[in-house]
Amino acid sequence: MKVKVITLFSGESEYQECKISVKRQTVSFQVDHFFIEGKSKPEAHNILYSTIMSESSEYDYFVKLDADMIFTSDNALEKIINYAIASNSGIFSIPVHDYMTDSMIWGLNVYKSGVKWFVETDNLFTDQQRIDGCYKKEKKKLDKCESLVSHASMATDFQGYIFGVHRAAKIIQYESVDFRFGHSFGQLQTLKLVLERYKKNNSKVAASALVGAYQLIVGELGRYDMIKREDYRACFENVKVDEKLKDALFFFSPNSWVILIRIFGFYGISCKILKHLIRKL
């Protein structure tokens, strides 16, 4: 059996540790590691999906391991692939231990050879490009004590800022044709966890994440996408996090429904909920 680990890198500080963690894996199959570096988010994912499709005859499974993810043990990859095989699914997912929120969040995907996509169909939810075909999807829940992959364990303040910007873009989805209410609400819950982390230890990284999210939502960044993280470098360097944090804390402290009404208005959020319910029927 052959497995290809594909890593997308765009400045994450965990990159070298990510590489090392792959090299030290003790597995019963062949592993190759492929890197996609310095591309915009949509470009990198288009390469990812195109690579998986074009090399489907050469590998049995493909693992998307982002550059800010690190295998937590020497046999983590073996366990992940065994879980994927047992699931008999085309797309298999596990949560990762996210240090931004100190919680388990969905983040690592395994693709069985043969899965196909229509690339370039979603620039925001890049992990959910439109599938070309019908494939079984399965998720396996893991507790923190069972974590096989860490996420953002060495994050810089700028990484925190981008984390917030990214989550906020998925909350408002201003440039998406089809609004996904469930995803929007879920991303807001993630930011609430970041808020709790900040309250516990005054983390500067968590503070930067809250500020980045707040600035994007209220329109201070002049854009609402998450195409390339370096596009926000100047915004981060120019903001005074300690001063802006007061506004961010005030904005994200209320109940999630209050926050959503602040963002979309009562009528707007009501319409989005109605469309969500209709879609579920």
Fold and architecture overview:
There is one protein chain. This protein has helices spanning 15-23, 41-54, 76-87, 157-172, 181-201, 204-217, 233-238, 241-252, 256-280, and strands at 2-9, 30-37, 61-64, 69-71, 91-98, 103-112, 137-139, 149-151. The protein is of the alpha/beta class and 281 residues long. It has 2 domains: 2-151, Spore Coat Polysaccharide Biosynthesis Protein SpsA, Chain A, CATH 3.90.550; 157-280, no CATH class. Strands 1, 2, 3, 4, 5, 6, 7 and 8 form an 8-stranded mixed beta sheet that branches. Helix 5 (181-201) packs antiparallel against helix 6 and helix 5 (181-201) packs antiparallel against helix 9. The longest helix has 25 residues, at 256-280. The N and C termini lie far apart (41 Å).
Please provide a brief summary of the model.
This protein has 281 residues and is α/β, with parallel strands linked by helices. The protein has helices at residues 15-23, 41-54, 76-87, 157-172, 181-201, 204-217, 233-238, 241-252, 256-280, and strands spanning 2-9, 30-37, 61-64, 69-71, 91-98, 103-112, 137-139, 149-151.
Features:
eight-stranded mixed beta sheet, 9 helices, single chain, 281 residues, alpha/beta, Spore Coat Polysaccharide Biosynthesis Protein SpsA, Chain A, globular
Describe the global form.
globular
Q: What class would the helix/strand composition place it in?
A: alpha/beta
Q: Low-confidence parts, pLDDT < 50 over ≥5 residues?
A: none
Helix percentage: 40-55%
Topology as H/E string? EHEHEEHEEEEHHHHHH
Overall domain count: 2
How many strand units?
8
Radius of gyration: 19 Å
Remind me, CATH topology of the largest domain? Spore Coat Polysaccharide Biosynthesis Protein SpsA, Chain A
State mean pLDDT (0 to 100 scale).
Answer: 93
Report the end-to-end length measured between terminal Cα atoms: 41 Å
So what's the CATH class of the largest domain? Alpha Beta
CATH superfamily caption of the largest domain: Spore Coat Polysaccharide Biosynthesis Protein SpsA, Chain A
In this structure, how is the largest beta sheet organized?
8 strands, mixed
Please indicate the percent range of residues in DSSP E strands (runs of 2 or more). Answer: 15-25%
